[in-house]
Amino acid sequence: MSSTSTQSPGPVGYGALIRGNANFRNLWIGQIISLLGDWFNLIASAALIAELSQSGFAVGGLFVVRMLAPFVVSPIAGVVADRYNRKRILILTDIIRAIIVLGFFLVTEPQHIWLLYTLTAIQLALSGFFFPTRGAILPELVSPGELGSANALSATTWSVMLALGAALGGIVSGTWGIYPAFAIDALTFILSAFFIIQIGYDPPGPPDASERTISSALRQYLDGLRYLGQHLDILVISLQKALAALFFTSGLQVIQVAIAKSIFSIGEAGGISLGLMFAIAGVGTGIGPIVARRFTGDRKRPLRIAILLGYLLSTLGMVITAPLFNFETVLLGTLLRGIGGGILWVFSTQLLLQLVPNHFRGRVFSTEFAFFTLMSAAGASLAGGGLDSSLGIGGTLWWMTGLTLIPCALWALWFVARARTMHRFSP
Questions:
Q1: Is 143:8 a contact under the CB 8 Å cutoff?
Q2: Is 379 part of a structural domain of the chain?
Q3: Quick one: which of 146, 155, 189, 347 has the most CB atoms within 10 Å?
Q4: Whole-model pTM above 0.85?
Q5: What is the distance between the alpha carbons of residues 205 and 341, in angstroms, rounded to a whole number?
């Protein structure tokens, strides 16, 4: 491990982690900067395509592209993360994404929508390498006592930057237009790479010549799938983000674009109201896991119980949002849904970090990301189709509210079945 921190036998707090571990601190600062640009980009892209296309299905298509691209590269990404220098992968993907984002300036007319889709696909395919690699490298930069705090802080940072980046992105797009957000996004990737360069990291040696073949890479990927097949609990945990994305989180993002544009429109193309909805979701996803972790710690059983609570809070948030009474109730429902979703995301990740061995971690995280992106694409596509059908915004929201109960029930059933099995075989 390449941590600069003191190896503590017990849990380490957030402040002590940031002060004492320079490697994590640089990774974390890079994450802050990069995510700020990511949310600028998403708000700007969604507002741009809504303005150019005037179609809910086209907006849904943007989210489909954003999710399918990482799915396509996931078999390669997991093997790469487990075979090569993880730090170099992070730096290289940041630099290339900075160059790609500048191409968004060329999208100015409705006939350029294909270019927006293409550039988005390339950018998110590179993210398909970045995020699993970042998840895989994290335990190598921190001690076991720091891991829980590092994971929670990283996830909370995602949430805080969603709130800040979406709000600022909405303000920039709604006040000064869409294109400045793309310039900011490109700059943040460069700054992120700069901080990752500062990390002191001792990677494992390069693979032998016999391990550099395509057949070897395919064998390693299949080994990762076999590992999941042989460890059913790991597989079920890996599916939670995907199930949530399919039934409510991904489709809700598409619907929020329509709400901002057609119902509660503030700013150019609804950019400000869209930014506010994403921002309040970010506040919720940040608050949820931090507060819940005060009760669960890093203990596995409480983490599993909290995931069920996360599903229930998400359902409650959808129930409050669906009637579309006013913008205030939409924001309240979005906050609760964000709290529930944050708990689900952070705690499922924490369970994987604690349960999966290092030599499989990259492939497990890339497969989890593949599940998530594929189901996100399906959820976004279905929501976009619902918006263009007779259901409209309200009907699609109510359908999604009911469907939220499905992953909640499945997790509850698995929790009970697993508890009974462990009790049966315990001495």
A1: yes
A2: yes
A3: 347
A4: no
A5: 38
